[in-house]
Amino acid sequence: MRSRISYVEACLVSIALLIAPCVGACSSDSSDNPAPATNGDGCTSSAPSNVALDYKGTAATVDLNKLTQQDYKGEKVVSLSKVWEASALTGDLAKLEFDFEGDDGFRPSSKDRCKTKIAGTQLGQGYVLPDVRSLVWDDALGLPGCYAVKGVAKIYATDKP
Fold first, then answer.
1. CA 128 to each of CA 26, 77, 88, 134: distance values in angstroms, whole numbers, following the listed order
2. What is the pTM of this model?
3. How far is the C-alpha of 66 from the C-alpha of 63, rounded, in Å?
4. CA distance linking residue 134 with residue 146, whole number of Å
């Protein structure tokens, strides 16, 4: 006996196949990241907690979830100076400056208002939210918004000129 698929059933199957990748992209595995973050399209997803660092061509990767978190303005954050320490890259913070790159390739130094890199001595006044890898800065620094990089993927350390 040969079964026939109705037009409606065929349409439903087609729709299901079209939206399946979207549903998969919106799912999160809470065992990997206990606090899923909104990714801007209405879905929640687990942002990777790793941040790459580069200094003089030497690379390191730091898992933010393995570092001690502290409370800053009601948010759990990791100090950027702790991220630097965990990288085990050598370099005196007093002699370094930093630039940051988001998942989307944005770097603060690409904006006129944020051309000045962050001094290594100011790194302790910067924080990253581990669940979404976004930067927040102590208000006392008076930094413009372009330093608040979303989804930080890479931190570049360079020697001060």
1. 23, 5, 18, 5
2. 0.71
3. 6
4. 12
